[in-house]
Write a structure and sequence with these properties.
Number of domains: 1
Order of helices and strands: HEEEEHHHEHEEEEEEEEE
Structural class: alpha+beta
Largest sheet: 7 strands, mixed
Radius of gyration: 26 Å
Distance between the termini: 65 Å
Number of strands: 14
Shape: globular
Helix content: 10-25%
Strand content: 25-35%
């Protein structure tokens, strides 16, 4: 007589299921941990940047004063957009399939993760069209670029990093971050090993307790959202690295994330039962944006080949 088959025996038993979900969709972006957020009233924040200073002159006794031109300013407006998605769970599934993993919590958690990841992506590559945010790569100031790179791009060097940091003048030369793709961090580590470090490479502890590498005291953040498929001249597979400052609450320095004062952060709203099915809907949303207060608070090297 043949032995019972594995398929048939499965009808009389149940596999052990591990509680929780193992993350398989992960993007490295620790910068999100330090980015400040500014809660604003209304759906936009307006601020003024210096355009032209009022003029002055050198004068002697009885010199006629002709320096009468007034200062002019450029007004910038950064608005909020909505990142949103619905978690919809069938009533029967929620009632009978939540003994190990709460079906509702899993779906809400997944939507919340997607919301955060969408913001991280938009922070870098948002093109400002439609409902997209105006990301950093879309608003880099023309005068804040490293000029020593070749026409077709160059490999990372300490000289490029030094020029990049020198361009950040917003906080009297204090720089809060360097941001680059993970492949470029590997290139930086190779540079450091080849030079013996020379006191330039340090380890800094983040607020979360995680350790990060730093160059000349500036934390280096790996960011998978920085594209590595850009073209410069005839060079392909290039990327952009960034350096800059974070706002300190004064709304005058570097960058800050924006969120609604009366609904800050990611919101979860129980919409209720669906009208035409036995499903319940939870809406996950975030009213968010980005401000670049000072153009001297960001700089970039465009065309890094490694």
């Amino acid at each position: 007589m043949a032995s019972i088959t594995l398929t048939e025996s499965a009808k009389l038993a149940q596999d052990d299921l591990v509680a929780g979900i193992i993350e398989n969709i992960v993007t490295t972006d620790r910068f999100f941990e330090v980015l400040p957020f500014d809660a604003i009233e209304g759906n936009a924040l307006a601020y003024n940047r210096e355009n032209v200073l009022g003029d002055v002159q050198m004068a002697g006794i009885n010199t006629t004063i002709t320096a009468k031109a007034a200062a002019t300013f450029t007004q910038i407006t950064d608005g909020l957009t909505t990142i949103v998605g619905d978690a919809e769970v069938n009533g029967l599934i929620a009632a009978t399939r939540s003994n190990v993993n709460d079906q509702v919590r899993v779906q809400i958690g997944s939507k919340a993760k997607s919301t955060g990841r969408q913001y991280q992506t938009q922070l870098i590559t948002g093109d400002g069209t439609g409902n997209n945010m105006d990301g950093l790569l879309n608003r880099l100031p023309a005068g804040q670029i490293v000029t020593s790179l070749g026409a077709n791009g160059d490999a990372l060097s300490f000289a490029i990093l030094d020029e990049l940091l020198d361009l950040v003048k917003d906080k009297d030369g204090e720089v809060d971050y360097i941001m680059m793709p993970l492949r470029t961090i590997r290139a930086f580590k190779a540079l450091a090993r080849a030079s013996g470090g020379a006191g330039l490479v340090e380890t800094i502890t983040m607020p979360s307790g995680k350790s990060m590498i730093a160059y000349n005291g500036v934390t280096i953040f790996g960011n998978d959202n920085l594209p590595i498929n850009q073209t410069k001249g005839t060079g392909t597979g290039c990327t952009t690295i960034l350096a800059g400052t974070l706002d300190d609450g004064s709304r005058t320095h570097g960058i800050a994330g924006l969120t609604a004062a009366n609904a800050s952060g990611i919101q979860v709203v129980d919409v209720g039962e669906s009208e035409d099915s036995d499903n319940r809907i939870w809406r996950i949303k975030w009213y968010a944006g980005l401000a670049l207060f000072s153009q001297l608070g960001i700089a970039y090297a465009d065309g890094i080949t490694n």
